[in-house]
Design goal:
alpha+beta, elongated, 6 strands, 59% helix, 296 residues, four-stranded mixed sheet
Length: 296
Amino acid sequence: MNEHNIRSMTGYGRGMSEAGGIRLVAEIRSVNHRFLEWAIRLPSGWASLEDRVKKTVASVVRRGRIDVTVLLEGKEVAEKKLTVNWEAARSLADAAGRLQEQLGVEGTFSLSDLLHHPEVIQVEETKLDPEEWEAPLIQAVEEATHALLEMRQREGAALAEDLSNRIKLLRGYVKGMAQRSPHVVAEYRSRLEEKIRDVLDGTDPDPDRLLTEAAVFADKSDIQEELTRMSSHLDQFSSALTRQEPVGRRLDFLIQEMNREINTIGSKANDARIAELVVDCKSELEKMREQVQNIE
């Protein structure tokens, strides 16, 4: 059997790099999505590097919702510079004094009041030049992308194995229908002959009429074309599982086509055993459809 190359759209990867006492941590999460959708969160002021990050991840990812988060860790990042706006502090203190003097307002204006005023104490965060940090950023993203790919491949292999097993079940059901189909017409003819004989009080029915009725039933209940197409779809599905390129949409289409054939068989084959096999097929196809939704 050929090796499966299926990839899941669900995965997680984490990568790190360090420079100048600062650690860059890149985390990538992916879930299923019809197309390729992005959500990228970079440190403040690094928006210019977003395209590089996208290209790095997109080199191995074709479909899914991709969430990329890059965080900065380290003492230098954690330290924040505090500055005092002296002009604002003096103005506030003077204003407080004049209010007390002119309005006779009781109370004191304390150092705590100044410290809690947003215009007096200002926080300056460490800003890093994105161009200087492009190389370590891409290094961390590449590591996270590799880990993401490995996880998507592992989950994809499990999905492919499960789908292959279900394909085997479907082949068995289709084979059972094919074996049962010829007996349906023969049994119908026997039942029809018995009914006509009852109506005619035991007299043998007209063979031409019996042949005509049986032929009409055989034509209406013939499921050979649907079984042939069903077998072809199963072959195409198995083949797609070994392809290198993303095949999620193709697999989804094939499941739709198989459902269509099975529904037609169910409506044409007037037989209890075939009806049971149709239900079994529908059950497996529904499980396969849910699995395929997560394949790239």
